[in-house]
Amino acid sequence: MTGRNEQLKDLAMKEIEAQRKTVESDHRRSAFHLMPPVGLLNDPNGFIQWKGVYHVFFQWMPFKTDHGAKFWGHYTSTDLINWELAPIALAPGDWYDKNGCYSGSAVVSQDKLMLFYTGNVKDEQGNRETYQCLAESEDGIHFDKKGVVLNLSEGYTPHFRDPKVWQHLDKWYMVVGTQNLNEEGRVALFESTNLKDWTLKGDVTASGEEPIGDLGFMWECPDLFELDGKDILLFSPQGLKPEGYLYQNVYQTGYLSGEMNYVSGKMNHGSFTELDRGFEFYAPQTTLDENGRRLMIGWMGVPEQGEEHHPTIEHKWIHMLTIPRELHYEGDKLIQRPVKELEAMRQNELKKEITLSNEEKAWEEFHGTTYELLLHVQKVESSFAVNFRNNAEMMYDADKGILTFKRKSFVDGKDESRSCSIDEVHNLRFYVDSSSIEVFVNDGEEVFTSRFFPEEHDVSLTFNGNGFVDVKATKWLLEAK
Ligand code: FRU
Fold first, then answer.
1. Which residue, of 148, 171, 435, 440, has the fewest CB within 10 Å?
2. Is the pLDDT of residue 388 over 80?
3. 362 versus 112: which is more confidently predicted?
4. What is the DSSP string of 167-180?
5. Predicted confidence band at 330 (pLDDT cuts at 50, 70, 90)?
């Protein structure tokens, strides 16, 4: 380890201490989501379970609430609820990562935890260079950088990053998010027998290819995995134009499903499906855990989407990760469900149940900032809405078959909304935290993930039914022990 890496880690630790009071005094700090101890957090990285312990690393800028030369922060957990901040895994202290240890993934090989990440470098003129790098650990806590394992391949610009590595049969594979020289998004595939020497196989798929057509200028954070008999390619394309209710955020995340041919390196797939309907969801990463579940965590943020207006900046921190979700592929659709473990956060003695009908109701007994709310929708003739702290609202218009999440913008205070068409709503499960709401519709068929920033004193929850409405609501206060 060079002196520079240690120095940087030291400075970052000092920054945590220096800002601890300012950060922790923010009422918007989450009760059960992963956040930066100070500064900016973005993508989840290196998500893996090893020897019973879950590891989530994260893109981290400790010194400001803006992007820059990223570190890899590190959390560990045995139950996916209680997370401990581990020592900093990677600092941008070497020539090949001096402008950031960018996103990447983790695998286990020969009893070591191996991190693959992008070394981001900018020269004096601001030209970008990119290196795919390796760091290894024997204890899962301390990492030794091993340097560059892959240089930029011909035919791509230096926007070439975010290696996701996995094993298939007797070989290792790596996908890298990139663009070609015409600035069209791509996912490049590499193959290796030893994790050190990598050979380019070609593009798994690309913007411009059928049946996806033009799909943006850059694809970030690819992830390729098998799920319930299908192969899924998950990635975050940049440059899609809004289309009806779709692609409303600055950048998107979505997937292709089909069959991966490991001999040709090509995937035969259908059309692109956006993964989330809310305001803040980007760059998710999955892992196969030791129980064989495919789990996913995402960044509850979007690059360049009003980031400088988040009110948490005043408290020297910004952004958080989503709750961990279990993925399935059912009925030609990727389904997301909160991991079962989260049920252990329910304070059962504080469970409340209520039946709602055609009325307006302020749920005093349901007030709070941190809870799970489950609505069983038996029948809705016209519409209903649930309002959270006078700052966000979920509305279901059964006449039109439209589900809408509305919130007060943190940029200008005006109402803004995201919607999706839906045939029928059977249930809505809300995970509400001090400044976020994740809504799982029909057991994960659709998900709306968003931040919201209500006034501290307003902890209200109100229901408004219009026409005949029969909804059973159950609420659990949540607490990570
Ligand atoms: C996605 C991303 C990645 C990159 C990282 C840098 O949000 O832009 O492509 O590796 O963030 O922090």
1. 171
2. yes
3. 112
4. EETTEEEEEEEEEE
5. very high
Query: According to the model, what pLDDT value does residue 2 have?
Result: 57
**368 touches 477 (CB < 8 A):** yes
Alpha carbons 438 and 449: distance in angstroms, whole number: 5
Predicted pLDDT at 325:
98
The SS3 of residue 22 is helix
Given a contact cutoff of 8 angstroms between Cβ atoms, the answer to whether 130 and 153 are in contact is no
In this structure, the residue with its CA closest to atom 6 of ligand 1 is: 102
User: In angstroms, what is the span from residue 220 Cα to ligand 1's centroid?
Assistant: 7
CB 335 within 8 A of CB 441: no
Question: pLDDT (tens digit, 9 = 90+) per residue, 411-439?
Answer: 999 999 999 999 999 999 999 999 999 99
Region 468-473 average pLDDT: 86
Q: How many CB atoms lie within 10 A of CB 164?
A: 28
295 and 423 share one domain = no
CA of 428 to the centre of ligand 1 (A): 31
Cα–Cα distance measured from residue 247 to residue 239, given in angstroms and rounded to the nearest whole number: 10
- Span between the terminal Cα atoms of the chain, in Å: 36
CATH number at residue 418: 2.60.120.560
Residues near ligand 1 (Cβ within 6 A): 42-43, 59, 70, 102-103, 118, 161-162, 220-221, 282-283, 303
| End residue of a domain, out of 317, 338, 359 | 338
Length of the chain, in residues: 481
Query: Does 50 score more than 60 pLDDT?
Result: yes
Rounded Cα distance between 467 and 198, Å, is: 62
Query: What does the block give as tokens for 201?
Result: 């196989």
Average pLDDT on 271-276 reads 98
β-pairing, 427-433 with 371-380? antiparallel
- pTM of model > 0.90: yes
pLDDT digits (tens, 9 = 90+) for 100-137: 999 999 999 999 999 999 999 999 898 999 999 999 99
Segments forming the whole domain that contains residue 410:
345-478
Question: Residue 113 and residue 136: Cα distance in Å, rounded?
Answer: 6
Please, are residues 242 and 249 in contact by the beta-carbon 8 Å criterion?
no
Q: Tell me the mean pLDDT in the region 27-49.
A: 98
Output the CA 403–ligand 1 centroid distance in Å.
31
Are 398 and 378 contained in the same domain? yes
Q: Which of 243, 191, 207 is nearest to 420 (CA)?
A: 243
pLDDT of residue 481: 59
- Say whether both 218 and 352 belong to one domain: no
Across the strands, what pairs with 48? 55
